[in-house]
Design brief:
Elements: H1 14-18, H2 60-73, H3 82-89, E1 94-95, E2 103-108, E3 113-121, E4 128-136, H4 152-161, E5 165-170, E6 176-182, E7 186-193, H5 199-203, E8 205-212
Antiparallel strand pairs: 1-2, 2-3, 3-4, 4-8, 5-6, 6-7, 7-8
Helix pairs in contact: 2-3
């Protein structure tokens, strides 16, 4: 199936962050509206339908809704803190063993897919970068169906409703590299076709990776 052209890490970040134990990455209860500041898009708009635990993993759709809710809460790069991410995703952040200030969360979705959220400092600059990724941790050719309930078009509509302006970035020969979304923070969204099963599935764009700065 079509692969994004970026070179971001493919490994599951939650393995080093959580020592490979899903229980260490169990989420906190979803935050209530009372703990959400006035500028955050409501939980009714991007509801968290389940609470992650070792026995009840989050679905790809629920992970996407949490990520969109988080993006809607960001007013600047300074909001990329462990406390802010926990408050607006309901996921417990774990510090990386590297000691560089990186932190994140992640867990398996099913036998083939996991999700990863990683915040790390940008080398030489006083800011952070958040990387969200759906990672293949089982079949390396698994279709994206399990994590594409909210596809790129759904993400794009939600981001535009938040006030983000979008523009594509192309690589050589006019090939799409990624989508930019500009707002209080800057996003790059990398997409991948759902599967190779049909022309329609190839053309169905799913969100694979998002970076936020």
């Amino acid at each position: 199936m079509p692969r994004p052209s970026h070179s971001l890490p493919r490994r599951a970040w939650w393995l080093p962050l959580c020592g490979g134990l899903l229980s260490a990455c169990a989420s906190l209860p979803a935050p209530s509206d009372a703990t959400t500041d006035a500028n955050t898009r409501s939980t009714q708009e991007f509801p968290m339908t389940t609470t992650a635990s070792p026995s009840t993993p989050l679905s790809g759709e629920d992970v996407s809704r949490r990520v969109l809710k988080l993006i809607g809460s960001l007013r600047s790069n300074a909001d990329l803190t462990a406390e802010h991410l926990e408050r607006h995703t309901g996921l417990r952040m774990q510090r990386a063993d590297s000691g560089d200030g990186s932190f994140g969360a992640g867990a398996a979705i099913d036998a083939n897919w996991s999700y990863n959220l990683l915040v790390s400092p940008v080398l030489g600059e006083p800011r952070q970068q958040l990387t969200f990724d759906f990672a293949r941790t089982g079949d390396p050719a698994a279709p994206m169906t399990a994590v594409c309930a909210l596809d790129f078009d759904a993400y794009a509509r939600a981001l535009k409703d938040m006030g983000f302006q979008d523009s594509p970035t192309y690589a050589e020969h006019g090939r799409l590299s990624y989508w930019n979304f500009h707002g209080p923070v800057t996003l790059r969204v990398f997409v991948e076709g759902e599967s190779n099963d049909s022309p329609e599935a190839i053309g169905h764009r799913c969100v694979k990776t998002i970076t936020v700065e």
